Amino acid sequence: MSDPRPTPAELARFNQHFAERIVPLWLGPGWNAEMALPYEALDATHHPLPVQRYRAMACARQLYLFSSRIEQPGAAERAAALFRSLQRHFHDAEHGGWFYSIDAQGKPLDRRKDLYTHAFIVFACAHYWGKVREGLVESALNAALEIVSEQFARDDGLYEASLGEDWADLGSGPLQNPQMHLAEAFLQVLSVRADQGVQQALLQLCQSLQAHFIEPQHGLMLEKPRSAVDNWFEPGHQFEWFYLLHTSALLRGTPLHASIDRAFGYAEQCGVKDAAVLAMLAVDGKVIDATQRIWAQAEYLRALALRPGSGVKLAEQLQAMHQRFLHDGGWYECRDGEGAVSRHDMPSTTPYHLATCLEGLQRLN
């Protein structure tokens, strides 16, 4: 039975929009040359929003972006500048690690140390080191891995979501999203070098997530540990997890992969309505937040590329991405439950999701 896939022309259209309409925003108006940092977001007319802060995570995501498959002039120089800025603006020379954010003048703002930020620093430095093989980049990567292992790691194989400036316990406990991006970061490290310690940490992390975060009936990845009250799941994260696990020879076939694979259909059934990926649902499938976010659409797209028999859905989703989220000026970040555009700004963090989506879609060729 035939399974029609999107045509090369349809994929090329998405890739062209990314290269010609989105990347130039961050080479041009989205770049604060004085600070050597990306602005947090641009408005619909490509002007930076008033500066409240700069986040280390946003800097790291853009480092990944410009050290990826960007062939535009200045991309390599931009990646080098982002790496320098990550160290210059955000690194805590006294306590180690990286601050969450700095203010408009470049002074530390939110001085806490969070796993989400450190996971993206590992991810971006590993990717960048794989491109440039410079000793300074590998030193930053190793330092970030050491911080994650020594400060964030818990006895149960999971990782604290947030710690104080001096690594004091804030009682945050583990949360799903930082653990997922740490798994993504570990996978990126293993893609550029053999690292037995990272491999063992990744396997232990997945084992602990299976034990503490997977809802047993459907196999869903919950946002908080299974014992927490008022829990929920996000379809976008189900699809993101599926992609990460399914594309890893190390993780494919693990109990966590089996759970996420089993949950895929339920997440689709409850969490995708009229080709729109909904934001938050209760375990029983009740919609908590029907917001449609471009990153979740991107994650669903690249996950579908791996699912046999999903050719029609994949083509529909690619069309939905163009019709609902992409426009000549860039993209719409969010639509509400009725489909109306609810955010007109374009955050500097979103191109990371589109870049990884396009990378995943290359598997169709």
UniProtKB/TrEMBL annotation:
GO terms for molecular function: isomerase activity. Pfam families: GlcNAc_2-epim (PF07221). PANTHER family: N-ACYLGLUCOSAMINE-2-EPIMERASE (PTHR15108). One of its GO terms (biological process) is carbohydrate metabolic process. Keywords: Isomerase. Belongs to the N-acylglucosamine 2-epimerase family. InterPro entries: 6-hairpin_glycosidase_sf (IPR008928), 6hp_glycosidase-like_sf (IPR012341), AGE/CE (IPR010819). This is N-acylglucosamine 2-epimerase.
